[in-house]
Design a protein that fits this description.
Elements: H1 2-7, E1 20-24, E2 31-36, H2 48-65, H3 75-108, H4 112-121
């Protein structure tokens, strides 16, 4: 009741009234918070993309296990999620193909120097 009665009625904090949804408890005649909105603002850094991807990866498991349910949404999360998968996937694919070529050329090319040059050209 302090939040609804005094804090949100102060002129400097009235802009928060749209961010909190109350429900009146019929048993105690008090107000319960059933939903609220919070903005997480971060300052710009040099590694902005990597930090947004890291933040997204940390928030997803928290959304599933905590008793306080929340939704993490930012319009850039869709792009950052794709960015995180598009960086790792080509590196893994390239590494796997180089390893496969190394194994195949080890058995097919007899000369070790020829094997080395073949791997470098691929």
């Amino acid at each position: 009741t302090i939040l609804k009665g005094s804090f949100l009625r102060s002129p400097e904090y009235q802009h928060f009234t749209e961010d909190i949804i109350f429900s009146k408890n019929s048993e105690t005649d008090e107000y319960d918070i059933i939903a609220s909105r919070m903005y997480l603002v971060a300052r710009t850094t040099e590694k902005k993309r990597e930090e947004v991807v890291e933040l997204l990866e940390k928030l997803r498991p928290l959304m599933l296990i905590n008793s306080i349910k929340f939704i993490a949404f930012n319009p850039t999360f869709v792009f950052m999620d794709r960015y995180s998968s598009s960086v790792i996937s080509p590196i893994l694919t390239s590494g796997f193909s180089v390893l496969t070529m190394l194994i195949l050329t080890f058995f097919l090319v007899i000369n070790p120097l020829g094997n080395f040059w073949l791997i470098l050209t691929v």
